[in-house]
What we know:
Number of helices: 12
Largest sheet: none
Strand content: under 5%
Amino acid sequence: MRQIRSEWIKFRSLKMNWWIISIMTIIAVVGPTLLAFMQTVAFDSSKKAPEPKLNIVWDSVGSFTQFYMLFAIILVIMMVVQEYQFGTMQIALITHANRVTYFLSKLTFAGLVTAVTYGFTTFIGFIGAYIGQRGMLTKQSFFELFTEYAGLIYGRALLAVLLTTVIMVGLSFLFKSSMATILTYCFVFFVLNNILLLALNQTLGDATGPNLMYWLVAFAPAMCLDVLMQGTFSGSMHVLSPITGALNMPITQDQYLIITAIVYAVMALISVTIALIMFKKQNI
């Protein structure tokens, strides 16, 4: 607990952290509110009744969940890298004879930061979206609606956020640079996925049996993150269907979800293990 308290003191003393949290809060409220309001107005102007299964509140909040996580990840990256840049890590390691203890305390506090910021911004985003749709598309009360989606928000979505945090903490210790770590995040979770999808499209029809590209796309970091956060299995199930059909191994959505969580957890474990090994050898 002493190490965690020390991390909290350092975190709250940096004004930049509170600026980021303030921006997160504003986006969390304004973004889903405006999106829900605009979609409600669109239905009003079209004179069409919304589909029974349409949930404008969840759709509006879900559109911003990646932004909530991105800002939380930026907080974590800065929290680690600033220790290198300002030379405070040398002082911290004097009081932490064991580097493993220091590393784990940093990792634990990073998880707490992302969990709290993601949970808070998602909750107030729900409030904003519920207000924005003006009760016209969602007749449930706010707490009934929030309870319905709480399992997704604070279940597998939170798991995805925490695993991503572990990966990014590992990369922060490896690169010791905010810019390099953020660029790596953008490449892995945005650019790489598109490259794999393009490569998959080129290989479709070239082989009658299972293709390695199917597996690379289905379990790419971005696809794992999307599945765990949004629960959108259709794209990944479409990718997997030729493989499971060729191998005569039918797979359900729940099974794919479990496999995805395991694969993503392994990625996080590899990232943080490599970072810890390198950190123990670093000259600081």
